[in-house]
Design goal:
Elements lengths: L6 H17 L2 H15 L1
Length: 41
């Protein structure tokens, strides 16, 4: 089945909205950066 045309733009908009909301809470960004850094260290 072919996906509807609005599904991909809706997913992109949801991802952008989640990113903006995450930047409003600095503790979330600090925790995320520490988790990413732990992968390499």
């Amino acid at each position: 089945m072919k996906p509807r045309r609005w599904i991909i733009p809706a997913l992109v908009a949801a991802a952008l909205a989640a990113t903006v909301l995450a930047y409003r809470h600095p503790a979330v960004m600090i925790q995320l950066s520490e988790q990413i850094w732990a992968c390499f260290g």
